[in-house]
């Protein structure tokens, strides 16, 4: 686009395929009194379509060089904030805006996909849904089901909060410049019911269970009381010889509740 020099280090692959942009906005039902957060608007390819919702819009962009492309989007409901999203105090920023539901919709800078998602979750802002463009293989990991090789600690972590769905694959040629890999759009919809579990122990336990990918549960969980874990596993047709990638979120929660009784 013009003489703009894309910064690879900032994950600057701009979307140029209108069909993809339309599919992204068709995947959510945003109302005028809602708030959308966009991370990394770049030259505004997605921002332009997000504006069609007429909702409140807050965009966080690290690279001030794109200001001239984004200035025209600013109005009473749209703000562009030039800051590193990872350094923003999200709670504080969102507190002053009146909105009904909150959405995060973004074509993410891939070098910080997980930190961005973790930041949003940890800030405890009440996100109804996120629609995110990520690397295709990352999408497979985030949306994996138990028993698949892609299923890992991050999958369980996300599934604790959200129903995660891979919506569609996006060919690398839909971007400028063309990246080395294909992408995919995922949707994370906040689960209505909250699980009852000691969260600190739960997240630690899940991390430990996946610590050594090739080792079985007996090895990875040797510091826990295996006698309390075994009967729960067997309810789910599993044994200590199985690996963590076989264990569903519900099974993890039941085990941790048994350990913390
Ligand atoms: N939304 C645009 C599009 O779809 O064409 C651009 C997407 S591009 C994949 C990622 C954008 O995130 C870039 O504009 C980049 O400058 C921006 N970015 C990278 N790191 C960032 C950070 N830490 N905070 C905010 N924006 C960031």
Commentary on this structure:
The protein is of the alpha/beta class and 261 residues long. It has two domains: 8-190, 3-Layer(aba) Sandwich (Rossmann fold), CATH 3.40.50.150; 199-260, rRNA adenine dimethylase, C-terminal domain (Helicase, Ruva Protein, domain 3), CATH 1.10.8.100. The protein is built from eleven helices and nine strands. The strands form two sheets. The chain has a seven-stranded mixed β-sheet with strand order 4-3-2-5-6-9-7. Strands 1-8 form a two-stranded antiparallel ribbon. α8 (199-209) packs across α11 and α10 (226-235) runs antiparallel to α11. The longest helix has 11 residues, at 199-209. The radius of gyration is 20 Å and the shape is elongated. The chain starts with 13 loop residues before the first strand and ends with a helix. The model has no long low-confidence stretch (mean pLDDT 96). The protein binds S-adenosylmethionine. S-adenosylmethionine binds next to β1 and α2.
CATH superfamily of the largest domain: Vaccinia Virus protein VP39
Query: Mind describing the biggest β-sheet?
Result: 7 strands, mixed
**CATH overall fold name of the largest domain:** Rossmann fold
Helix and strand sequence: EHEHEHEHEHEHHEEEHHHH
Give the strand content.
15-25%
What oligomeric arrangement do these chains adopt? single chain
Assign a percent range to the helix content.
25-40%
Mean pLDDT: 96
């Amino acid at each position: 686009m013009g003489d703009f020099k894309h910064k690879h280090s900032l994950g600057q692959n701009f979307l140029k395929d209108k069909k993809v942009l339309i599919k992204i906005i068709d995947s959510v039902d945003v109302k005028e009194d809602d708030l959308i957060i966009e991370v990394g608007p770049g030259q505004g390819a997605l921002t332009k379509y997000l504006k069609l919702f007429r909702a409140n819009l807050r965009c966080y962009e690290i690279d001030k060089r794109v200001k001239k492309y984004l200035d025209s989007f600013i109005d009473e409901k749209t703000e562009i904030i030039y800051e590193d999203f990872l350094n923003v105090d999200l709670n504080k920023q969102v507190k002053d805006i009146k909105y009904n539901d909150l959405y995060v919709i973004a074509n993410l800078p891939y070098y910080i996909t997980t930190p961005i998602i973790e930041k949003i979750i940890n800030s405890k802002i009440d996100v109804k849904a996120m629609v995110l463009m990520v690397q295709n293989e990352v999408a497979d990991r985030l949306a994996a089901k138990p028993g698949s090789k892609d299923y890992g600690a991050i999958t369980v972590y996300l599934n604790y909060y959200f129903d995660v769905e891979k919506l569609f694959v996006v060919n690398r040629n839909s971007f400028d410049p063309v990246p080395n890999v294909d992408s995919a759009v995922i949707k994370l919809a906040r689960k209505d019911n909250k699980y009852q579990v000691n969260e600190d122990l739960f997240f630690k336990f899940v991390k430990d269970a996946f610590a050594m990918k090739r080792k079985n549960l007996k090895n990875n969980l040797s510091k826990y009381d295996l006698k309390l874990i075994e009967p729960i596993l067997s309810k789910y047709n599993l044994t200590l010889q199985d690996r963590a990638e076989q264990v569903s979120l519900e099974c993890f929660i039941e085990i941790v509740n048994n350990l913390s009784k």
